[in-house]
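Entry 14. Two folds queued back to back today. First construct below, sequence then structure tokens.
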Amino acid sequence: MNTWPYPRWIAHRGAGKIAPENTLAAFRLGAAHGYTMIECDVKLSADGVPFLLHDATLKRTVRGWDATESATAGDHPWAQLSHLDAGGWHSRAYAGEPMPTLAGVARWCLANGVALNIEIKPTPGTDARTGQVVAEHAARLWAQSPVPPLLSSFQPEALAAAQQAAPHLPRGLLLDSLRDSWAAEARALQCVALICNWQLWTAPLVHQVHLAGMRALSYTVNDEWAAQHLWALGTDGIITDRVDLFTPN
């Protein structure tokens, strides 16, 4: 990218731990704390609707599904998923909060001037299809926006499909461990960012990423000492749950 349009601080799944993750309620709370960019997880329903959910299954963060049916979210059509409760697991105050679609999130972000990091989170076995469909929807939904969403994934196959479907949208490779092939993968995918588990960053790695023309982003940073360490290393962005601790700048 010729210019980097994103802020240094990014709210993880909306407002991380203090609201039900990946809901518009969490997005609103993150924005209320001053965050102008939010990270979220997007996967596909059985009928191809992109919606927000981190886990492959419904068990941890969703109530109201029939336990006799498959708990895998991607096995169900959106008409069924849209009626489930994605807030009651967190607290009574959020009971009844639905899982949003990517389209609904786009409307909110565009209306409120909030940038988005879309982590493509495929149901196992659907990497390429999920990457393609999410990128196609993102390209259409943000077609008139000067700040495009940043697409990221741990799955290179998903990012490759997103690259083919919408090559103009920026991409970031997510890493939980530093494999030898990361640089070649990021180069082939024309990534603008490497997004690492924050404990992986060292000064030489930051330097290598910057030499490759990419930004160095970190997840998920919830302690002030860790944030200060990462800024001292020269990293470019932090994804945090603690929107109540860190004041974005």
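Second construct, same run, same settings:
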Amino acid sequence: MTESNSANDKIVSGCWDELKQDAQMIRERVFIEEQNIAAEDEWDEQDAISLHFVMYDQNRAVATARLLENNSIGRVAVLKSHRGLGLGKLLMLEIIEVAKNQQRKHLQLSAQVYAIAFYEGLGFSVNGDTYLDCGIPHIDMNLSLN
């Protein structure tokens, strides 16, 4: 497990076994409760083999994401109580930095359409057309790390 700190916020990265409790709580609240995604669609075999990130605000888990072996970022979620504070951006910048340190050439993600501008602000570009994933409009986005 590794940590990155700024002011009151701390980002911890590690395996699923280390971060499951906090990451799972955030994803259950955001995806299953708020967005009505079925539990069987939320949990998959990628959790066990992904690098997970959890952001803490004064020791309270408030945001999470995962980085898959195929250079995909997924399951990006910030608790409703902490949205609009720039925490998602800090979390994404940490993931991008880790990917660069791992000498990955690019990153990709499947963005919910409402979040396109957020990811574009981080340098991601839209790739392709919108599609439905769990009934929610998504679009693929890419970021070159060269």
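Quick look at the second one. The beta strands are 2-6, 9-14, 51-57, 60-67, 72-78, 106-112, 125-133, 136-144. The chain is about 30% helix and 40% strand.
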